[in-house]
Design brief:
Blueprint (H helix, E strand, L loop, with lengths): L11 E5 L2 H4 L12 H8 L12 H15 L3 E5 L2 H4 L9 H16 L3 E7 L5 H7 L6 H17 L5 E6 L1 H6 L1 H4 L8 H26 L4 E5 L5 E3 L4 H24 L4 H9 L10 H7 L5 E4 L4 E4 L5 H8 E3 L3 E2 L4 E2 L3 E4 L16 H14 L3 E5 L17 H19 L4 E4 L21 E3 L3 H10 L7 E3 L1 H11 L6
Parallel strand pairs: 1-2, 1-14, 2-3, 3-4, 4-5, 6-8, 7-13, 13-14
Antiparallel strand pairs: 8-12, 9-10, 11-12, 15-16
Helix pairs in contact: 3-5, 7-10, 10-13, 15-16
The structure holds 6-O-phosphono-beta-D-glucopyranose.
6-O-phosphono-beta-D-glucopyranose binds next to loops.
């Protein structure tokens, strides 16, 4: 570091979570199942989300710890099936009460809530009775849910996020259960994507109508794509990868219309995204106020048509860790190993510079204020003999990332907060609680969570502050000066 970057007064320092990954209590107080519950119970060989970090029963303790750390913001999501559990559309007052208490508690501690409406937990009733993401009926159901949230919480919640990582949901539809009931995902995903865009637009407009002073934005999952080399076709490959994993969604959110790139792609591939009269006007009317950015890592792309030997070499990261599997889209791009950055135990690129890159990139393209709503370091972790967790690698990663964020602010980018994933350890999308991200350790393993579920007894779920908690606390309390 050659100098200390400065952060604006009132910068929002906090952390991030999602309902299905942190709350547990999946059948408490009237909550009904979500599609992601089923996914987590069937696809993943770790603990499922029925207990998670048991935040549902530890919310007050968690907020007290956030306050002790010095948080000025907390980004979390509301669970749709906790708020509207059945197809009659009736509001579940017990679900509302849980979030009211959480929001009141945050506000009482001067912690600004940043609330996501949708983070992968569509109620099963929406999927089974309305046809889920394939059906236009879902747009009305989502709008009803969004309006209830704005009416009940909008007096205290001013920052709203509509749909978490729509780009990742479409790119990895099979993984997140979004492709349920679709026969030809290559084509059908654009219809699903269109339904999500209509839901997004309805939520943006309803927020502006119902929440005085309310601001709302999308949450793209940003993984910047570097070209593997200065070979010109590697640059085209990187641009293609960026279009198909991120830019299509960012353009639609920022401009309220589909890009010519996407329309041409549909035409060339004979794809009908299911646009009906009035849809484009609705999309155009929904003006976002900011972009919430999730960014953990970068990817690297090369032209797919390279020779097989070079390809094999690039696809093998190292002998000892075996093979990374890189998606290839024939004729467009192939993702590959980046020899310039290290990798986590979970094969994610450790690349704090990607944060500055993403911020510069989004600012240059869209000129909208931004807040970081996810970033972090997933690792295998254990308590030592004194019951402590020493996570210097996480401190190093967060510090390097915060530095890069500061540089982006110096570059002229408008950024108003940093909320890494996650406050406590919680359930990862595909790796149970074994892949830990928290500043606070949750004292339970996947096996213990499975045993507890089978026995029907909740474990104590003790919270243990990691070294990163103490480091982050100093950083926050000095508004980024002590790091
Ligand atoms: C983000 C998601 O993409 O990445 C989170 O919004 C997720 O839900 C996070 O947990 C980290 O990914 P993973 O797979 O390590 O849990």
């Amino acid at each position: 570091y050659d100098h200390d970057p400065k952060f604006p007064e009132g910068f929002l320092w906090g952390a991030s979570s999602a309902a299905w990954q942190v709350e547990g209590a999946t059948d408490a107080d009237g909550r009904t199942p979500a599609i992601i519950d089923l996914n987590s119970q069937t696809k993943v060989p770790f603990a499922d989300n029925s207990i998670a970090a048991d935040h549902y029963h530890h919310a007050h303790e968690d907020v007290e710890l956030m306050a002790e750390c010095g948080f000025t913001s907390y980004r979390f999501s509301l669970a749709w099936p906790r708020i509207i559990p059945h197809s009659d559309g009736k509001v579940n007052e017990a679900g509302i009460a849980f979030y009211n208490e959480l929001i009141d508690d945050l506000v009482a501690h001067n912690i600004t809530p940043i609330v996501t409406l949708y983070h992968y937990d569509m109620p099963v009733w929406v999927d089974e009775e309305l046809g889920g993401w394939k059906s236009r009926k879902t747009v009305d159901a989502f709008e009803h849910y969004a309006r209830v949230c704005f009416e009940r919480f909008g007096d205290r919640v001013k920052y709203w996020l509509a749909i978490n990582e729509q780009n990742m949901q479409i790119c990895y539809g099979d993984w997140l259960g979004v492709d349920k009931g679709c026969d030809d995902w290559f084509r059908d995903k654009w219809r699903v994507n269109h339904i999500m865009n209509l839901c997004h637009a309805k939520a943006v407009n309803a927020c502006h109508e119902l929440v005085p002073g309310g601001k709302i934005g999308p949450v793209p999952g940003m993984v910047p794509i570097y070209p593997f080399s200065s070979e010109p076709m590697d640059q085209i490959a990187a641009m293609n990868a960026e279009e198909f994993t991120e830019k299509i969604w960012n353009d639609t959110d920022a401009y309220g219309e589909y890009s010519t790139f996407l329309k041409n792609y549909w035409k060339n591939n004979d794809i009908d995204p299911g646009i009906e009269p009035g849809d484009e006007e609705l999309m155009k009317s929904a003006k976002i106020d900011f972009i919430a950015v999730n960014c953990y890592r970068s990817n690297t792309a090369r032209w797919a048509a390279a020779n097989a030997a070079a390809q094999a070499q690039l696809m093998n990261k190292t002998g000892e860790k075996g093979k990374l599997i890189f998606p290839t889209v024939p004729g467009q791009y192939q993702l590959c190993y980046n020899p310039y950055v290290p990798y986590t135990d979970w094969d994610w690129e450790i690349d704090p510079v990607s944060m500055r890159y993403v911020m510069r990139y989004l600012w240059d393209h869209y000129h909208l204020p931004m807040v970081v709503t996810e970033n972090g370091f997933g690792a295998h972790e254990h308590k030592d003999e004194n019951g402590e967790v020493h996570d210097q690698y996480r401190i190093d990663f967060l510090r390097d990332t915060v530095y890069q964020l500061g540089l982006a602010i110096e570059d002229g980018v408008e950024i108003f907060g940093y909320n890494p994933w996650s406050f406590t350890d919680l359930l990862s999308t595909g790796n149970g609680i074994e892949k830990r991200y928290g500043l606070v350790y949750i004292d339970a393993t996947d096996d213990e969570l499975n045993e507890a579920k089978a026995a029907g007894v909740l474990p104590p779920m003790k919270r243990i502050k990691k070294d990163s908690f103490h480091w982050y606390s100093k950083l926050i309390k000095s508004n980024g000066a002590e790091w």
